[in-house]
Recover the amino acids of this structure.
């Protein structure tokens, strides 16, 4: 799998650099066909993944442990949740924390009322849809299947082995190779794209502080090199050190910024908004989950396709990376712990983050109109800094926010390198150090090459490729659901049979013991009668 993956990544990078705008337009058209014409497929599919995750967590299968029956968790609850959250959502929350709710507020979906309150409610509930239980259900589908195969059945850390219950030994051949190559390439593309967009946000922050004015592609490439070197150092140190420590630092910095904005802003109003937002989200969840925008014509389907369907494809393209990573760190957890931990905790934290950070951006726009351009456009890379600039000590907080973005990207890069290396090494949970460094370098070089492709075309190409790859991988995910359900059902049946055999054996032993006791009592009674007869005769 190593060389085919390297070849595919190299071909796409070269094509992006040579093709430029033409390559970007071609892929954009193809991506539009995939997204716009498959809403009928993606919408019920992702909703089905949510139902599947809930069923797995709260059914009779929830007690099954992802490991040996006496296995203890590898990581403490706090470190586990920190790594899980940082790998799955962290950087996206920082990048889109202000930009997405503000974009929905300024340009809502067709059919939303024109009032400020209606647009604000829609903005927050739609953001919650994109960052709540739906993406984490996607991760759970992949993560649970792999965690069960790896920790319960002792299989290598690889996508293919999650499908063994369906395809048997065929996963050892070309079919398994193809599945793992798709997962590996999709992970590299997704992380490289995030690196590219992330350094643009870092550049915007440095520009805001006056450190680097209007950074160009060369400066951004140097930033990518620095982040890549940090990721290399982290991934070499392993999960127990670099990845875990950085994840904990990320959560600490994010919590500091979150509570600073909460305290320095409209504290009471934001806390009130939090529960209001959750209520509106839960009230509209069924309808939003199945919304295709069809009643509003091309404008409605275009809006849903450009945002919601695009997100569903984007999360599925990230599912191999995040799923394998959270599976790797979840040994010793039960199925129920895995589902609740991965579904509920990150969702609530994301909701609170978007309420405080995104809600503050909307409140600032309502009060002073300072969060968007004159034409109503939203600057996705600079929105967070626009908000922080309105608070006391803004330069210090912006500096901390830049560090947060850097650390989150390092965490995403090192954990992704670890996952890719496991795939490329045939599922080895402790792949060699040189290959960890190699894949971290590939991610950085891919991001640099596409940044230098000019005018953002390279990153557009990579982003579109990631979403396109999600289509074939969605079929793999459906197969994973079937395989996981089959495996857990068979194991539960085996456990029930074992319990029945134990109960039967205990019943037999109990009956034998009772018979022996009765026989002993009978013999004792006969002995007592004989003694009485002897006494009577002697008398």
């Amino acid at each position: 799998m190593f060389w085919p993956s390297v070849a595919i990544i190299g071909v796409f990078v070269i094509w992006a650099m040579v093709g430029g705008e033409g390559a970007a337009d071609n892929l954009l058209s193809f991506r539009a066909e995939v997204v716009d014409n498959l809403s009928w497929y993606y919408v019920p599919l992702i909703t089905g993944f949510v139902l599947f995750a809930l069923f797995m967590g709260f059914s009779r299968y929830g007690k099954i442990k992802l490991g040996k029956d006496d296995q203890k968790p590898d990581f403490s609850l706090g470190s586990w949740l920190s790594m899980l959250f940082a790998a799955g959502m962290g950087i996206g929350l920082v990048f889109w924390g202000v930009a997405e709710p503000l974009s929905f507020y300024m340009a809502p979906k067709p059919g939303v009322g024109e009032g400020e309150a209606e647009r604000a409610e829609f903005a927050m509930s739609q953001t919650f849809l994109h960052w709540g239980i739906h993406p984490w259900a996607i991760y759970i589908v992949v993560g649970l299947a792999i965690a069960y195969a790896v920790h319960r059945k002792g299989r290598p850390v690889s996508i293919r082995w999650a499908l063994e219950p369906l395809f048997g030994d065929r996963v050892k051949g070309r079919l398994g190779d193809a599945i793992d190559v798709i997962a590996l390439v999709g992970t590299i593309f997704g992380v490289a794209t995030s690196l590219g967009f992330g350094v643009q946000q870092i550049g915007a922050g440095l520009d805001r502080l006056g450190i680097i004015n209007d950074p160009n592609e060369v400066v951004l490439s140097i930033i990518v090199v620095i982040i890549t070197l940090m990721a290399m150092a982290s991934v070499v140190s392993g999960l127990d050190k670099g990845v875990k420590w950085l994840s904990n630092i990320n959560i600490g910095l994010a919590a500091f910024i979150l509570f600073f904005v909460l305290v320095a802003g409209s504290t009471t109003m934001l806390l009130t908004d939090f529960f209001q937002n959750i209520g509106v989200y839960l009230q509209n969840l069924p309808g939003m989950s199945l919304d295709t925008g069809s009643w509003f014509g091309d404008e409605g389907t275009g809006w849903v396709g450009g945002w919601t369907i695009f997100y569903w494809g984007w999360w599925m393209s990230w599912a191999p990376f995040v799923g394998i990573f959270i599976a790797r760190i979840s040994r010793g957890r039960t199925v129920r712990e895995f589902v609740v931990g991965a579904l509920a905790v990150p969702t609530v934290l994301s909701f609170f983050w978007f309420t405080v950070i995104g809600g503050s951006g909307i409140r600032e726009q309502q009060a002073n109109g300072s969060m968007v351009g004159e034409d109503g456009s939203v600057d996705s890379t600079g929105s967070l800094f626009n908000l922080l600039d309105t608070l006391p000590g803004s330069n210090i907080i912006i500096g901390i926010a830049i560090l947060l973005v850097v650390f989150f990207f390092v965490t995403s890069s090192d954990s992704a390198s670890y996952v890719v290396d496991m795939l490329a090494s045939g599922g080895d949970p402790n792949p060699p150090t040189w290959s960890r460094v190699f894949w971290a370098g590939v991610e950085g070089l891919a991001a640099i090459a596409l940044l230098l492709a000019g005018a953002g075309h390279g990153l557009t190409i990579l982003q579109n490729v990631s979403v396109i790859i999600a289509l074939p991988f969605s079929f793999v995910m459906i197969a994973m659901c079937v395989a996981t359900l089959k495996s857990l059902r068979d194991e539960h049946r085996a456990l029930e049979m074992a319990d029945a055999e134990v109960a039967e054996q205990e019943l037999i032993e109990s009956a034998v013991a009772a018979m022996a006791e009765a026989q002993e009592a009978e013999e004792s009674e006969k002995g007592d009668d004989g003694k009485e007869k002897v006494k009577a005769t002697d008398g």
